[in-house]
Design a protein that fits this description.
The protein has about 200 residues and is mainly alpha-helical. Helices cover about 75% and strands about 0% of the residues.
Length: about 200
C-alpha cells in the first residue's frame, strides 16, 4: 500500500502544521503573562480602592473597570480591524486612558516603597498591556489570514455565481469569510470576469 502524498515526510502539511502549532504556543504564552500581570495589577488596584475610601465591593470592581477597559477596547479594535474599519478616535482614547490608569494605579501602589517600589510595581501593568496587545496582534493575523495558498488558482465562490453588480471588498469579506487581501483578489477576479 502506498503512502498518501499528504502523509509522506517532507510534504507541505509536515511544515505548515508545526508552524501553526507554534503560533498557538506563542499566543498561549502571551496570554499567560497577561494573566499573571493582571492578577498583580488587580491586587494593587484593589488595595488602593480600599485605602482611599472604597468598600469591599467597589474595591473589587475598580480593577475590573481599569484593566477591563484595556481588554474590552482591544477587542473592539480587533473587530474593527477584521471588518476593515479604522478604529474610532474614542476607541484609541479608551485604550490610552485604560493603559494610563492601570500604570498610574500600580505606580501609586509602589510609591509607598519609594521610587524603586514605584518602578518595580509599574512593570506588571506594562507587561499586561504588551502581552494583551501581542495576543490581539496574533488574533488579527489569524482572523485575516487567507484560507488558501496565495499561489492557488482562484476558486469559484458563491459571489461569482450571483447575478448583478460586483460586490464591495467588505461584502466579499463578510460573505466569503476571508481577509481583505483575499477579498480584493476575489473582487479583481470578478471584475475581470464581468469586464
Amino acid at each position: 500500500m502506498s503512502e498518501r502524498a499528504s502523509d509522506a515526510p517532507g510534504t507541505r502539511e509536515d511544515t505548515v502544521r508545526p508552524m501553526r502549532d507554534n503560533r498557538y504556543w506563542k499566543m498561549a504564552a502571551t496570554l499567560l503573562v497577561a494573566a499573571f500581570a493582571a492578577v498583580i495589577s488587580y491586587n494593587h488596584i484593589y488595595d488602593l480602592g480600599l485605602r482611599y475610601g472604597g468598600d469591599a465591593i467597589t474595591a473589587h470592581l475598580l480593577p475590573l473597570v481599569v484593566d477591563g477597559t484595556v481588554a474590552a477596547v482591544s477587542r473592539v479594535m480587533l473587530a474593527d480591524y477584521i471588518a476593515g474599519d479604522t478604529p474610532h478616535v474614542l476607541t484609541w482614547f479608551g485604550l490610552a486612558a485604560g493603559v494610563g490608569a492601570t500604570v498610574a494605579a500600580n505606580v501609586a501602589y509602589g510609591l509607598q516603597y519609594g521610587v524603586e517600589g514605584a518602578v518595580i510595581w509599574a512593570i506588571p501593568p506594562v507587561m499586561f498591556v504588551i502581552s494583551a496587545e501581542i495576543t490581539m496582534i496574533g488574533f488579527k493575523r489569524e482572523a485575516v489570514a487567507p484560507r488558501t495558498h496565495p499561489d492557488a488558482p482562484a476558486s469559484k465562490t458563491r459571489l461569482s455565481l450571483a447575478p448583478g453588480p460586483v460586490p464591495s471588498v467588505r461584502a466579499i469579506m463578510r460573505e466569503e469569510r476571508v481577509g481583505r487581501p483575499r477579498a480584493q483578489q476575489i473582487r479583481a477576479e470578478l471584475l475581470g470576469a464581468t469586464g
